[in-house]
Design a protein that fits this description.
The complex is a heterodimer.
Chain A (H helix, E strand, L loop, with lengths): L1 E8 L4 H14 L3 E6 L9 E9 L14 E4 L21 E4 L5 H8 L5 E3 L15 H13 L4 H12 L4 H17 L31 H4 L20 E5 L10 H5 L5 E3 L5 E3 L9 H5 L5 E5 H4 L10
Helix pairs in contact in A: 1-3, 1-4, 3-5, 4-5
Chain B lengths: L28 H13 L3 E6 L18 E4 L4 H17 L10 E7 H7 L1 H9 L4 E7 L36 H6 L5 E6 L3 H13 L3 E7 L3 H5 L5 H10 L5 E5 L2 E6 L8 H4 L15 H16 L2
Parallel strand pairs in B: 1-2, 1-3, 3-4, 4-6, 5-6
Antiparallel strand pairs in B: 5-7, 7-8
Helix pairs in contact in B: 1-6, 2-4
The chains are: A alpha/beta, B alpha/beta.
Amino acid sequence: MYRIRFHGRGGQGMKTASRILGTAFFLEGFEVQDAPRYGAERRGAPIFAYVRADREAINERGIIGRPDLVIVADESLVPIAAAGVMTGITGDTVILINSTVPPDLWQNRLNITGPILTLPMTTEVEDRLEARFIGALCAGAAVRLVDVISLKSLKAAIGRELEPLGPEIVKKNMEKALIAYNSMDGHAGCVKEGGGMKAEEYERPTWIDLPFDEAALSAPVIHGAATSELMKTGLWRTMRPLIDYDQCNRCWWLCSTFCPDGAIRINDEGYPEIDYEHCKGCMICLANCPPHAISAIPEEQAKGRSEGGKKS
Amino acid sequence: MDETRFKRIKDLPSTHILGTGTAMCAGCGGLEAVHEVYDILGEKTVFVNAAGCMTLLSIYPFTPFRGSWLYTAMASAPAGAQGIRDALDILLEKKRIPRDEDMDVVVLTGDGSAYGMGLSATSGAMERNLDFIYLCYDNEGYGNTGQQYSSATPHAARTSTSKGPKGFPGYKKDLFSIWVAHNPLYVATVLGAEPLDLARKIEKAKELKGPRLIIALSPCPTGWDFDPSESVEIGKLAVKTGIWPLKEYIDGKVVHTKVPDRRLPVEEYLKKQGRFAHLFSPKRNDKLIGEIQESVDKYWKGI
């Protein structure tokens, strides 16, 4: 059975990638499961989708624990533990990362010896969330890496999955998928099917037994206020808003009022300050700043400028 | 109440009490409205939340609120509010809490619940003259599950259950009028992108005692398919084109609080959103755009 996981950010088309790959497998006569992780999937938030494909009926269910292929559309997710990119990776797992950093450097970084491939898919865009067609690229690469699906089935799958978006979009996605497919020529078939898993070999998660208590004790009650601030949603951001305090005229705190997340506070002097630990990078502030005092730079370039939002 | 403490934008709160770090999408128009509303209502507020996007505000052990929050099934948030109101009243009567520790009970639901499956519970709550605030964040579809159509979906919009060249064949339910027909104390429409209008209405609602119901149009980058940075602009266009009339119902009268001087053509609003893209490409659908314009014109002619 093939077990394949796609990791990306909400909006990058990982669900689409899994749908295209799943349909392509299906058209080749495989039994298929494909599903995105359901839950708090949000634009910019780390998400994943997965595909299982087998010649026989698939009895496995749930999230893939031991993947044969992991495709990472957004390299910034790799170091984020919560994104789970490295979950269940074995020495046989092929990892394909959308990155301009060479594979051996990734192997050093991650301290693994298993096969890592890279495919620079998004060099032409500044904001990774704006990278169109990345789902199709991921699916195209995956098809070549497993090498059991014909080009015809890949094309048919793209046509089927993207049909409501119109012929133009379908055509562009096909082109992109083919580029990715061809770029993996040297690695065709390097992803091997993982063996079946027996129910007896199933590793139970470690449960914590909770004794039965009165509702007053055991009900999920939160006593702290605004504990959500412990969640660092700044990780969702791909672009960083910067306030130019020479331009800011302390207008009417519009940025602070409009910011859906309340991630802009006004300091004692009346200047806005952006909370980068929580700013999700929606850029409503940039779009609505009357004197145009807010600009945006790619998050990559912003590293080491953590004080960029403070009035100094 | 004639006096408002929100005369100009500078009077709006500069500190915000809703916690950061929630799971709402970047650029969420609903969260924008909720945080603005919460700033005005203050910390002494209990939220009763029916299933929807905003359920994800409080995921144990995290909450952005500074007070209590109760999660109910989709159809029964007003019933949950009744229970909390009753409990507070009993505590007050028995003097187990002082008057100044009383709280506002606020139902928070999406349009799926407000316009659809929660409507009968809301009707009952109004009938019982329940002292509560209902805040509906209306993103015109079942946003949390992938934008399937709801009773609030506008005519011709694409949803994940209404595809094809004509989009959604139905029409947005007029929830404002349905609520008004119950003759509750206060009903209003608001918008996060119009914070001053919103603040005045919430300020007014807070001072009243009885059923007070608010609908906040909530531009949704994910469900409506636009760039998150345009959330405010699209909201403002909904007002400028006349698609989202800002109004309130009080003392038996409907008053429009912000009437656009010269309404922009509806297509200015429609063309910014992917969910209406099929009206413009591959071929412009003048008939459908015209129908939408006509219904807006008809509305304003009638007031």
